[in-house]
Amino acid sequence: MQCLLKGLSTISASRGLTVKKLYVAMVGLPARGKSTLAKRIREGLEAEGLRVGIFNNGELRRTRLGRDSTAPEFYHPDNAEGRARREELAQENVAHARAFLAGGGNVAILDATNASRARRAMLEARLTDHPLLFVECRNDDPVLLEASLERKAALPEFAGKTRAEAIASFRQRMDYYERMYAPLEDECCWVRVDSVQNRILEERLGARVPFFHRIRDILVSDWVRNLYLVRHGETTYNVEGRIGGDPELTAHGKEQADALARHFSRVEVTHIFTSTRRRSSMTAAPLKAARPDCRIMALPEFDEIDAGLCEGMRYEDIQSEMPEQYAARMRDKYNYVYPQGEGYVTLRERVERGLKRALFIAGDAPGVLLIGHQAINRMILSHFLYRRTEDVPHIYIPQNQFYHIVATQRKKLFELVPFM
Q1: If we measure between CA atoms, which residue out of 77, 78, 31, 28 comes closest to residue 176?
Q2: What is the pTM of this model?
């Protein structure tokens, strides 16, 4: 009954309209994407004219306690003093959230781990004036957890430690949180989200939750502020008409890489993703030199399609030496699979995995540059644009232009931009 009454909680506005209010409490272990998702919820709701505030326990802790709270032992479940300090901070942010809604705000987001049932019970006991929705973030991808540890190690609170020390410290902190963590179960209103795949895993709504349909749509939407999708520069294999391999750039390909660096010296980009192939990393090299502030990461998911036994061959060679394979590919390029290799149809899963990983690692970054390959970029474009499968292997992927993609809940942009 309490859930139902809270779900109907409203305040009358000065003009006689009914104004709904909502608390959103994030839930999840560290480095699972909670803060990124909280910011997306705020951005999406603010675009509809709502007032949204985020109350982050970590930011409050760093302001109040500084480096005194950096040591992992501060988070040990048996550390009574540390537990008391964390509880004080949580209570303070609850008070801030209540004041925000009382002062005219519409949605207050409590951004914290809220890992234990005891902490969540405290929130349910304190936040009785308006509905409360828990949003749990799940992510068990080991690659992404390692990347998140790297990012956390760069926080100012670890400035006095080496990179290795900072990572070890945060890893120990995560271990302590895992000891006390309990997933959502008995709470009144909640939704569990795969924060990498943007997918609802489970939801339980015991009442009418204000703005829930808008929030749910945000949770499952791609959120790409600016993705710049580039094909590597010209290679020796491109000139010779060969497929696959690991060739280097030609002199012209290096000119293309230099032109790309000049263009993006004027564009806000914080993350650059490449494949593990030389032509991709060589294309990124001039930009890396010009933008040392950018984080660069090579992901094998972005490696070009594996041509198997046909690696390094020209298509005319395949036609003469393997005529049945050549004919099969010409009949159905999308579903064709190279002998002992891959095809577009088998490529989709790993490219999707790489794209989701890259976007998760980049988080709320204003700009992400991805230097891929022809088949890889076609698959990425097909993620954002509808294309019949038979048309995907023919999407235009030039080496002197890039695709600029914006994809959020409210905005879709797709354009092909020349850089030389």
Answers
A1: 77
A2: 0.87
